[in-house]
Amino acid sequence: LAAAAQELLDRDTALKGQIQENAARVEEIGRDAAAKEAELARAREQAAGLENELGGYRLRREGRERRATAAADEVSRLTMEENNLQSRIRMLSEMEKMYEGYSKAVKVVMQAAGRGQLGGVHGPVAGLLRVEERYTVAIETALGGAMQHIVVDRAEDGRAAIEYLKRRDAGRATFLPVEDIRPSALREQGLEREEGFVGVASALISCEGRYRDIFENLLGRVVVCEELGAAIAMARRHGHRFRIVTLDGQVLNPGGSMTGGSASRSAGILSRAGELGRLREQSSGLRESLRRAQDGLREARRQLADAAAELERAQERKRAQDDLVLRLEGECGQGRILLETLGAQERTWRAELEAIARRSAQVEADTAAARAQIRTLEGRAEATRQESAGKESGQEDFRARQEALRAAIAERAAQLAALEAEESATRQALFELRAMAESISGDREARLAQLQEYEGRNESLRGQIGDAERALAALRGRLDSQRESVETLGREKLELEGLRTQADKAAREKNEELLRMERECSLLEQKKTQANMEEKQLLDKLWDNYELSYDGAQAQRQELESVPRTARRIGELKRQIAGLGPVNVGAIEEFDRVNERYEYLTSQRDDVLKAKGELEEIISGITAEMEKIFAVQLGRIGEAFSTTFRELFGGGKATIELSDPKDLLGCDIEIRVQPPGKALKVLTLLSGGEKAFVAIALYFAFLKVRPTPFVVMDEIEAALDESNVVRFARYMRSMTDRTQFIAITHRRGTMEEADVLYGVTMQEKGVSRILTINLNDVERELGITE
Fold it and tell me: What is the pTM of this model?
């Protein structure tokens, strides 16, 4: 019982120590939990801040998306305006290039100047000045027909242009030689103080300095006034001595006549030039605006990409913060579960303490009973001890007596030894005494009696010692039995302590296993909670991002080959989706509209493709027919050319060959000729006269294959020598049965073969006369025969 009580006391002490340790651990865990809670609160606060920041980034991205959309719309608008403007500029430039609105004479002169046939031509007056828009009507009215006057360097250049117009029968034009035109200035005083005065017309235009005298001549005496009433008053005050034009195109002529009505813009020539200049300036500004808009669009897209990247980084930080919040929530939950576990363990320990207290009470009761029994036993043991003590005291007495006896024995032994020695001595002495006995017989008997007495006393002491030893052996036997009882109780105590130790060890193992299982259960619960939250987040994200349920996503599930590769692919797709821009909520209506137009355009395209196919078939047929006709006609022309060449050159041979007979219409045509006495050559290796003669032969071959009613030849034989000119003229004469030839020539041989000669002479300056000589009539009159 003492051992059980001691065991309970040890367990009680151990439990109290564990409870204290548990309390310290609970306090430590509580501090950690409080720190975790504080950290969780901070993390939640940071998560809220990140959510606000994320909202800010979303707003920034939306703003930048709107800005990028607006910039793209602005770029599109400016691009359309630029395209429209360029179309208008191209149209006006083409009209300027084709001199649209100018007279036929101006067009002919300018085209000839462009080809280099006329020199010193600067251009029409309307193309050499620049006028502000508000003065355009007035200047056009003031110039009138002078806008189509042509500015040239010298009078000779104007004369050459007039001759060219006469030869072409292309009409009349007025020419302004720069070196001959003199300015005309208005010398009226005080005009600038007149009401409605705008300015002298020549001062309202801008031009190059070399043309200033011309425009001073044309506009130097023309006054521009704001409106007709002020113009009439001005003309009256100045005696109608100069021309006045209003801004809306009304005219007061010198002498008092008036011209007015709706403003004539002379086919808009000057307005077109001014508009073209304005459009070009506007195009320059528009291109600059477009460049700035494109720069703004690129900047807006860059800012949008930056905002998207910032938003993505903020989302990453938000996800990391959410993960931190989840982790801290899990740790806080784990801490709470651990605190609950420790509380439950402490309650278990306290219950165990109570049980130990009850067992201690029971043990104390048992101990009290045992103590009572022990006291009884102790009384009995005391009696036994007293008895034993008595016996031990008796034993002590015996021992003392034994010791005394032993001492006495020892003494007696000593005495015996002494006696033996003495006996020996006595024996010695006996011998001596015997020797003396004989002398002294009475002393010997006395000594024998004394010796017997001592021996008796020794026997008595030996009996007492034996009794004492027997009593001591009995006491030792009882002591041994008591010791065996104590050893038996000790063994039982040790066995009970072993069982208790094993039970405590098993309990500790069970408690540790229980704690481990509780921890695992807590972790599993935490993981389950976290997994549920992650599952909910994934399902929410799946629905928010893709509008897919779990079953829908499961139906579209695909096996992943590599998670990193899939993550990279997801990142690329997200960037591509981000690059698509904001969702167009009107996409359905826009799709319907675009789809309707697409179907319409598709039908139009199909019709065009069908028509294209039909046209291609027609073209293929025409091409085949052309190739057939071309091959036949080329063969006929080749034969005719070979014959004509031999006839003109007096021998030799000539052929027309195709560089690629398989591509009749697309290949080059090569002419190979071999004049008499020379090697075969291509046309490019011939001399100039030979080339001209070959060309004449080819032309005559054309006329043989496809004769025409009449032919005009302009100095076609100019490069030939006299003998070949005669050959040419005679051959042309041989072909007059089917074709009439009109030849412009300076060569004698050609004129000799002609029937009628026409010549032009100018006996008087500016007056041309035509002379006609009919050589057939001359021959008949003179009687000339070949």
Answer: 0.36
